[in-house]
Records
---
Amino acid sequence: MFCAALPHNGRLTHWKSAMSHKPLSEQEYQRLSATLARFADHGCMNLERLDGFFAALLAGPEAIRPAECLPLILGDAFDDESAFPSEKALEQFVSLLRGHWQDIAEALKHGEFQPWLEADADGNPRGNDWAEGFAAGMELLNDDWGLLFDSPDDAPLLEPIMILGFERHPDPEMRPVVDALSEEARAELLAALSPSVHGIHDFFAAIRLKLEQDEQALEQEQPRRPH
């Protein structure tokens, strides 16, 4: 899956890091959701799918800045010159994306992450969009995610995400469950998403820490050159 640091029609060239984080307000989330919904016909992610996508990028093997993935987030709207009426409108949208990204990062840091799940027409969350977004994020570093799949102790963390993420797959053979999920089974899977994401975050954080420690030890073992 393609993901690269590309300018949006020459107007977006970088992702400015915030010195301090202020959580998005309810009104700001409404604006973000409405903007994403406006591009639904262009294959743009909705807010639930975006939340899962960002969760995978932040909890996974290596941080990928969301500005590098605007083509995946916006779909065909990324190449549409008329998608945003002005540079200011684009900057406001990017600011909302950055705010949501930072909200997730802070929640993971403090062990408080909860997935953003929208209710269906019957008022019940299904979680498919969220899990499909998470799976899309995994594809960006597919080989590195193999470390988790190959871990007997930690691979089960992916189970609720994979079940919901592939429940609607067009190929029936790719669906992890044959029969429709019961309300009880779906509720259990949805409840497992938060601890799964935290477990995945801890798994890869431990690997990164071990690599850093090994690199430091190797540097200390290397003989110093005489002056």
---
Amino acid sequence: KAELVMTTFYYEPPSKHQDRQFKGDVSAAYAWATQVAEVEVDTATGIVRLLKITAAHDVGRVINRLGIEGQIEGGVVMGQGYALTENLIVEQGRVQNPNFRDYKLVTAPEIPEIDVAFIETLDGEGPQGAKGVGESPAICVAAAVANAIHNATGVRITSLPFTPERVYRALRGQLPLPVWNVPV
């Protein structure tokens, strides 16, 4: 099991519940998360194998540990698909890969080891101090995998999914350099 080795302080500005015009926050209690990926990159083929995800999630109060672990594990697998295999191809308004022969989903043998750590910070707005964990597990995976690929190869890839062809081309300098859209 993962152990929390570092923590920090953050300030969250006061929340305002949504009113009848839908102005305000969409959630009563926001969850926070971070993930670290361990990958194996075959530089001859571009194949990336996800070996392990360590996921630390601030879930507020843990009410149903098994349920939250399952939610996080399912989200990690969903995020693994976003990161490595799922690529909907649309040309002139038509889906080019409309079945599971061409649209690749993660299968059971590809699921990595998933190590989950909970950080409990009670939230006064969430039910019994809990926070939602529906989206955050899936959102973090692609960034964690991108950073693991960069750490393993020195190459930064900024387009999903990290298919073998895309990784192979990136390793050989055949992809355009990333464009960072950072406001000045």
